[in-house]
Design brief:
The protein is an all-alpha fold. It is built from six helices and no strands. The termini are far apart.
Length: 187
Amino acid sequence: MATHTSDLLAAAAPRTVDVVRGIADDQLDLPTPCRDYLVRDLLNHLFEVVVNFQELAVKRPVEWSEKPDHLADGWRDRFETETGRLIAAWSDPSTLEGLSPGMGMPQTVVGGMALLDLTVHGWDLAVATGQAYEPAPEAVAELHGLVEQLGPTARKMGVFADPTPTPTTQDPKNLHHLLAHTGRTPT
């Protein structure tokens, strides 16, 4: 079975997995466009996202305060495995029903947040490590509405910075506009 959310995650995930696989050990201490995060910090955060959002899919509470180091031997393979589990977790249509007990938001929004992190942090990691990154177009198109919806609260909570300017000649639904709305400077 599949859902719209799992289909979008399945389109986005391989692109981020490729970036993660391309990160060399000597790049772990490089800065990223995601303020206050080095590559290793952002990788650990993204691991937390793919693991915790598996639990959120089945409406179980998660613990965000624990900050384990996921970058032990085999972390690139484990990231791919956990990302596959994330997609599978959101494949059941019941995952999209109702409100998330742990997040207090519609489950469709929670699934979208996992997609947002995979897509935007995939770009962050690619930029930080000098890799090419082409996000899934269907994910980018879907995420514009979510970023608009979450933007004011995310800015208050310090998750997003203030939007940055983008050229008016660009398609307003492209990756650069999405990144700019999260407070990143995409060029």
